[in-house]
Specification:
Layout lengths: L3 H4 L20 H13 L17 E4 L2 E4 L4 E4 L7 E5 L2 E2 L4 E3 L4 E2 L4 E3 L4 E2 L4 E2 L3 E3 L4 E2 L4 E2 L3 E3 L4 E4 L2 E3 L1 E3 L4 E4 L2 E3 L2 E2 L4 E2 L4 E2 L10 E4 L2 E4 L7 E3 L4 E2 L4 E2 L3 E3 L4 E2 L4 E2 L2 E3 L4 E2 L1
Length: 265
């Protein structure tokens, strides 16, 4: 329950070989995340002016930027490939839409294909936003974040130093700090993944009657593939939850290590 294969058994690690070291505890990815992102990121926002809300919507396609006023857009669910853009009658496959009012604080940001960035979202680098992901109105991505494909970063959701693997969703009012969400994790509204002990000391994890010092002062939760949390649930710093587990609404979990298919209440 400490290694990537234990928590993310459905993940194709060849595709994400830069993120995870398979023979080391999974939280070590968080300690290296900033450097990893600096090495792999391919910024593609061109000459956008940083730290100012976009005055007009833009469409990003294959490294080119087209003003939104020159295209026709059908604002369907981006995670299902239903965000559709036409330019002079031609469908732009894989076009991403950056709505007016979105803020990109620096150039160290990579936006994938078919992405929707809604008005009022704010993104700091280094950050990677994967294909067909939605970053909704009021979302705050504070940097050092890797967001996979078909994810949702929802309304007033805050991400910081976090990995979201493909299909993970935090649709409403969530805080996700120094955490890793596995494939198809779903966070209920108001979920908080706390990342800092009140005393500010290193996060230690108890496993098999041993207390393991992670070496990290900030460590939120690591949620395995298909974990679901109920509304207003909270995890304590240093919580590791095995795949296909359920956390009921209004539940406070951890710290600690919980096996696959746990039912936490």
């Amino acid at each position: 329950m400490l290694f990537p294969h234990d928590l993310f058994p459905q993940q194709d690690f060849l595709r994400l070989r830069d993120l995870f070291e398979l023979d080391k505890p999974v939280w070590q990815t968080l300690g290296r995340l900033k450097k990893i992102l600096k090495d792999i990121i391919v910024p593609n926002l061109g000459a956008l002016v940083p730290a100012q809300p976009l005055e007009e919507g833009l469409v990003l396609i294959e490294g080119e930027i087209i003003p939104q006023k020159e295209v026709d857009i059908e604002f369907g669910d981006a995670t299902k490939g239903n965000l559709k853009v036409w330019y002079k009658g031609r469908a732009l496959q894989g076009a991403s839409v950056l709505c007016a009012g979105a803020v990109f604080m620096d150039q160290d940001i990579e936006i994938g294909k078919g992405v929707l960035i809604e008005p009022g979202a704010l993104i700091k680098g280094p950050t990677v936003i994967g294909n067909y992901t939605e970053v909704r109105q009021g979302a705050y991505i504070r940097g050092n974040c890797f967001v996979g494909e078909k994810c949702v970063v929802g309304h007033t959701t805050e991400l910081k130093s976090t990995v979201m693997l493909d299909g993970s969703k935090a649709g409403h009012f969530a805080y996700i700090g120094d955490s890793i969400l596995g494939l198809e994790v779903n966070l209920g509204a108001g979920t908080k993944l706390a990342n800092l002990k009140l005393r500010g000391t290193n996060i230690k994890i108890r496993l098999d009657n041993q207390l393991i010092d992670t070496g990290l002062r900030k460590l939120g939760a690591i949620l395995g593939d298909k974990v679901q949390t109920g509304c207003n649930s909270v995890t304590n710093p240093g919580t590791i939850v095995g795949p296909e587990s359920l956390i009921l609404p209004n539940t406070t979990v951890g710290p600690g290590v919980f096996p696959p298919r746990s039912f936490l209440r």
